[in-house]
Design brief:
It is a single chain. With about 130 residues, the protein is α+β, with helices and mostly antiparallel strands. About 20% of the residues lie in helices and about 45% in strands. The chain has 3 helices and 9 strands, in the order E-H-E-E-E-H-E-H-E-E-E-E. Strands 5, 6, 7, 8 and 9 form a 5-stranded mixed sheet that branches. Strand 2 and strand 3 form a beta hairpin.
């Protein structure tokens, strides 16, 4: 059996990214290991997510990578955070300083609102119908 385990998200700084994903989005820090030479293996995931699934936060190492921070998907929504309490989660995130770029809307597939992470990557907060 195969499954998708980690998706790399290029970040400017490990600690500021950990703080945002942990404190503003409510993710758990799964691993933060020093790999030497100023690199770390940092994994975060939404609470309640299956073990082995998460985001690998990778600090940009060069100009090309730094240019991609916040624009990994060319301005499109590239990440989808599912919830079973849309209103509560959206209110908690907004109170924690998360920037929503649109008002919540209710579609045939569920309740959704687009927000940006601390770098400008776009996410959907989504409660499926």
């Amino acid at each position: 059996m195969s499954h998708l385990a980690l998706v790399t998200l290029v970040v400017r700084d490990y600690d500021e990214a950990i703080a945002f994903y942990r404190d503003a989005l409510g993710f758990e820090l799964v691993e933060d290991a020093d790999r030497g030479n100023g690199t770390r293996w940092v994994v975060v995931r939404p609470r309640g997510t299956a073990p082995g699934t998460g985001l690998l936060l990778a600090r940009a190492k060069n100009d090309e990578q730094r240019e991609r921070v916040g624009a990994q998907t060319g301005g499109r929504v590239g990440f989808f955070l599912y919830t079973d309490d849309f209103a509560g989660e959206q209110a908690r995130m907004a109170a924690a300083g998360v920037r929503f770029v649109e008002e919540p809307r209710h579609e045939a597939y569920g309740s959704v609102a687009v927000f940006e992470d601390l770098y400008g990557n776009r996410w959907d907060l989504l409660q499926p119908a």
